[in-house]
Amino acid sequence: MPETTRELLTAGGWKELEFGPFRPDVTIHWIRPFEGDQPGVALLKYEAGASVPRHRHEGLETILVLEGTQSDEAGDYGRGSYVVNVAGTEHSVWSDTGCVVLIQWDRPVKILEEKTT
C-alpha cells in the first residue's frame, strides 16, 4: 500500500488506493482505523446520489473535501472545504454529484435512523 501523505491526497493519488464497503454507494479506505482511544482517519468515496443517514457525533469529526461536493442540512461543501462537526451534533450527509473526503473521527458516529425500503 502506498504511503498516505498530504501530497498524495491533494494531488489525486488517492485514486490509486483500494476502497472497501462502508455504506450503500459509499466506500472507505482506512488510513488509520480506530484503535483504543486513537481517532479513526479514512477516505470516503461517495457515488453520485449516495447518502449517510442521520447520525450523531459522539466525538469531534473533521472533513476535508478532496473532490466533488458533500452536502448536509447546513449547506454544500465543495473541493477544499473544511468541515468541523463537534460532539453531540446531528445531521445527514449526501452527495448529489459524488465526492471524496478525508475524514477524522475521534469516536465512531451513532446512526439514528436507517431508511427502509
TrEMBL record:
Keywords: Hydrolase. Residues 16-103 form the ChrR-like cupin domain. One of its GO terms (molecular function) is hydrolase activity. It holds the Pfam family Cupin_7. The keyword NADP does not apply. InterPro entries: ChrR-like_cupin_dom (IPR025979), RmlC-like_jellyroll (IPR014710), RmlC_Cupin_sf (IPR011051). It comes from the Bacteria. This is Allophanate hydrolase. It comes from Rhizobium tropici. The lineage of its organism: Bacteria, Pseudomonadati, Pseudomonadota, Alphaproteobacteria, Hyphomicrobiales.
